[in-house]
Amino acid sequence: MGQRLGVTLGDVAVLAGVSRATVSRAFTRPEMLNTETVERVRGVAERLGYVGNQAARALATGRFGNIAVIVPDIANPFFPPLVRTLQSAAEEADLAVFLGDSDESPEREAKLVTRLGSQVEGFVLASSRQSEELIRNLARTRPVVLVNRDIDGIPRVLIDASGGMTEAVMLLKKLGHRRLVYLAGPRDSWSDQQRRATLVETSAAAGLAVGIIEVGRPTYAAGRDSVTAIVHSGATAAIAFDDVVSQGVLAGLELRGISVPRDFSLVGCDDTLAALTTPAMTSVSAAAAAAGRSAAELLIHTLKNPEVQPTVITIPTHLVTRSTTTQAP
Amino acid sequence: MGQRLGVTLGDVAVLAGVSRATVSRAFTRPEMLNTETVERVRGVAERLGYVGNQAARALATGRFGNIAVIVPDIANPFFPPLVRTLQSAAEEADLAVFLGDSDESPEREAKLVTRLGSQVEGFVLASSRQSEELIRNLARTRPVVLVNRDIDGIPRVLIDASGGMTEAVMLLKKLGHRRLVYLAGPRDSWSDQQRRATLVETSAAAGLAVGIIEVGRPTYAAGRDSVTAIVHSGATAAIAFDDVVSQGVLAGLELRGISVPRDFSLVGCDDTLAALTTPAMTSVSAAAAAAGRSAAELLIHTLKNPEVQPTVITIPTHLVTRSTTTQAP
DNA sequence: TTGAAAGCGCTAACAG
DNA sequence: CTGTTAGCGCTTTCAA
Predict the structure, then answer these.
(1) Domain that includes residue A209, residue range
(2) For residue B261, is the peptide bond before it cis, meaning its omega torsion is within 30 degrees of 0?
């Protein structure tokens, strides 16, 4: 059996000379009670250091006061700002947040979801790698908000990279580049699919050739190691899935004595690291912090109004031109 | 009253033709049961999609199956790798993890702790900004593991920067620098206190002058803005509280036309960003990922053996020499 | 405005 | 090996 581990509502009740129901109400429905009763009860509670037991409350109400955010890789610089604002917004609504890192694996993501499912009000799935079916099933159970995943009928916030990507292609064309490569990210990432598709279309429309190099998991090392393939491709400019990859490419290029932007132009994505490198990278903006806040607000709103139509919030992007793009050699 | 929101243990029980206790045991103590009973029960559970209710379990056992990790700023690149390994290790022990971001505020940290206190087994406080007293009180309640905070009697993992710092001072001396500055971080950070103290001592011993510039919250902007003070100080080399600050300084210096390392030498700390910059920064190593894993293991171990002596794990550091340190001008 | 009592879903003695 | 029973701490009808 569970053993007592702190001050309980009952303790407060006896000391305040009221019933347990009254103590409960003093916190959850003070307007039902005599003002002085509320004050007395709260005073006693304070003195005793009473902290409500969430588990018991959850059991009684069916509400947990928790949400979960799942990300593929918290070490990828895109996610920390997102998680940060998310948690901050959640805190304001008195929600605690579980963090799950799926390590880019759909299976681990699914496991996290079931593990957390029994103690959260709702989920924010950021860049979910799971199948649409699984996500739909989950969403039937409880509120789900997606970030950078586009599933009809489920509330979501999408960072629409197509704007920035298109600008990038146009810029590169104007600079005289004829042959580009896209350093593609994880295949089950919606962001990658969108970026890839935009790039292919826009390049075709602009009359530019575009090769695709799969780097898989978007890491610095993967970017650096893709340089061989880049050189092989004969391209004079590259657009990377994200800034981490892009930064790896930058390093790999320099390692080979290929100077950026003199010999080669480079565009990143997400603008997470771009301003920090030397030369500062041209990158597509991505407002991860804003996305986190929107996701939290969307979830909280859905929690309160379960019947609302699924909303989709689109965050537009643009190209931030810095020093890694210039005239084709 | 709470309303049923899913398949309960009772549902499984009737369908499997056993008591609820048996269903419970089929999951928590299968060795007590007939193998075939276990299989039958689990089969039924599976078919029904039964997922145990954590709140109820927690209420009955007093155990929650959750831990919390609190960080001052998840967007600071030191923490994501730490949180990542922490969560991964926790997952292996079937513990879910709450993430709290205190935004460098002791008050918010305290609030998070009380908010989460009623649903976690234990805490990992990373770079806690709280008073020693509060932490001691908390530790009386439930297991607490500290990261980069040195409180006697509480299990902790400390990244000991003194090794790397000392090497840095020695290197700079050898390179002919006579006057250094330390770009100091948050005052209530143990790491800062340790780095500051080491630097002052070592420099004195080495016969070098060392100025201290407070940058407060360790951000890129703060680092960049500290350059005026650096120039004023007359120093020829700087050691920064962390790589974020250091990177800001690097940018600020370049902005003023001060070339690193030609005109000025720079050492970062934590080695989070150092390898990524151009020029690559000399920095003190810091193994955040290892710290996260150790912290998780320490907490899990404490959870299982409540009576053990408080352990302290010290992670040594060293200087990683790259390109931002050279002969004094 | 307050109290009594039932119950949320699960676990753990204690019997058998 | 399995069932019965009594809670874990809280909320919420229902009555007073």
Answers:
(1) 160-286
(2) yes
